[in-house]
Amino acid sequence: GAGVSQSPSNKVTEKGKDVELRCDPISGHTALYWYRQSLGQGLEFLIYFQGNSAPDKSGLPSDRFSAERTGGSVSTLTIQRTQQEDSAVYLCASSQNRGETQYFGPGTRLLVL
Amino acid sequence: DAKTTQPPSMDCAEGRAANLPCNHSTISGNEYVYWYRQIHSQGPQYIIHGLKNNETNEMASLIITEDRKSSTLILPHATLRDTAVYYCIVRVATQGGSEKLVFGKGTKLTVNP
Q1: Could you give the 3-state DSSP secondary structure of residue A52?
Q2: Burial level of A84, CB count in 10 A (0-12/13-18/19+)?
Q3: Of A16, B14, B23, B99, which has fewest CB within 10 angstroms of its CB?
């Protein structure tokens, strides 16, 4: 079946611009996670959505970062006023329910010039 | 804040078994051990997970010691396409009350022809 998909696969932007990254989780998965991976680094947790519950935003690095999940399915991660240190691979994962196996998408490679 | 330790690199001959060790001495009784791998420029790929008993699927086998302080991922017949970074993971609680995957440095497995 279809896995987690993300778009765009690559994004180059100028410092100060806003960007939106999209994630389509596996159909029927109630839990959705955003992570980012900087060059040569491990995964950094950003935010977690579970059903209609309030999201766990404890990993967002600054108030320039926000995310929403509409209708319990597609999620959008928005970075406002991008900075060069935001350059990374942004990964989305979904799981059927909280605490179950997370399946990752291919990621969006963001480069801020 | 990874709760696992792995050797930084390993080599394996094509067609032979690859045995990747992981120490997780602080694991608690109800925490699963997960294995993912990441091939360059791709999102992490789920391999297998287990709690107490040994597990096997179409990709690999997972051997967990009786005291659960360590485990070994076994790729029975490694191929060149198995060259990747392999991560052994125990989920960690977030500050917001959910759980996240923490990827450490992993083991860079190189399968040689």
Answers
A1: coil
A2: exposed
A3: A16
d(Cα B28, Cα A41) in Å, to the nearest integer?
26
Of A99, A104, A107, the CB nearest to B99: A99
Question: Which two three-digit tokens encode residue A89?
Answer: 């691979």
Residue from B102, B98, B99, B82 nearest B38 by CA: B82
The 10s digit of each residue's pLDDT in B4-63 is 999 999 999 999 999 999 999 888 878 899 999 999 888 999 999 999 889 999 999 999
Closest-CA distance, A83 to chain B, in angstroms, reads: 22
CB atoms within 10 A of CB B37: 23
What are the tens digits of pLDDT across the range A30-67?
999 999 998 877 889 999 999 888 899 999 999 999 99
